[in-house]
Specification:
By secondary structure, this protein is mainly alpha-helical. It folds into two domains: 169 residues, no CATH class; 72 residues, 2-Layer Sandwich (Alpha-Beta Plaits). 58% of the residues lie in helices and 6% in strands. The chain is built from 13 helices and four strands. A two-stranded parallel ribbon has the order 1-2. The radius of gyration is 20 Å and the shape is globular.
């Protein structure tokens, strides 16, 4: 468990290096294209799975796969503006989700009515892996955008507020059973876990007010807090019944 973040970092760097090859399989923006073309593609399947498992495993998709998030993690080490923890702006999240899917389905129905397509079909490899010049440009723009966001706004501010997929995964993660758990008997409230957290979750608040259960839906299940904890008071584990756990702790 102590080395969880090391595995997480290796996995994310691997996906980052593979992104040019698997761009249309990993970049959730292509869900819009999939709806437009009326095809259930591999990118739809991957990110649908990430959303469906979030009530059980939390935001594994955001914390272990997303190359945009990885770039922001790396560049935000040198970010210009240091931001205090704030809850995500719900109105921005809702607006982005509605705008994304509304426009996609509007164009889908326009094409459907014109006879250009014949409904939704299951074709995982409809978005092939051909990395042509057009998609090279999109990949460059996405990468540069993530770099700029990381340099300007630290700790995945953009992921927490602007990303529609992050918002959908966070909705499920709000009841996730896989969470960071702090042994309040071992914890010395040094705050190192909170300082090192990739999204700056106020972990000490959960130690003091929630018996050590870090039930924050923004958690990426990356293990950074576990690695940072010198007293080894932090673990990521399944808590199936939080009330029962708290009762036992008390």
């Amino acid at each position: 468990m102590k080395k969880l973040y090391s595995f997480n970092f290796i996995t994310r760097i691997l996906f980052l290096l593979l992104t040019p090859t698997l761009f249309r399989a990993l970049n959730f923006a292509f869900i819009w294209h999939s709806i437009y073309w009326g095809a259930i593609t591999i990118v739809v399947i991957i990110w649908s799975i990430a959303i469906l498992i979030s009530p059980l495993f939390g935001r594994l998709g955001c914390g272990w796969i997303c190359f945009m998030g990885t770039i922001q993690d790396l560049t935000s080490l040198h970010s210009i503006f240091h931001i205090k923890w704030n809850k995500p702006l719900i109105w921005i999240r809702v607006f982005n989700i509605c705008a994304f899917f509304t426009t996609a389905f509007i164009f889908f129905f326009i094409r459907l009515d014109s006879g250009t397509i014949n409904g939704i079909k299951f074709d995982p490899w409809f978005l092939n892996m051909d990395f042509n010049i057009h998609y090279k440009h999109i990949w460059i723009y996405d990468t540069l955008g993530a770099v700029l966001l990381g340099l300007l706004l630290e700790r995945r501010w953009a992921c927490r507020n602007l990303c529609f997929m992050g918002a959908l995964c966070a909705s499920g993660a709000s009841i996730s059973r896989l969470i960071p758990v702090v042994d309040t008997q071992k914890c010395n409230l040094c705050g190192k876990c909170e300082i090192d957290c990739l999204v700056r979750i106020p972990i000490k608040d959960y130690i003091i007010n929630n018996h050590g259960l870090v039930t924050n839906p923004e958690c990426l299940i990356c293990g950074k807090c576990v690695e940072s904890c010198k007293p080894q008071a932090l673990k990521i584990k399944f808590i199936w019944n939080q009330k029962k756990y708290i009762k036992n702790v008390v």
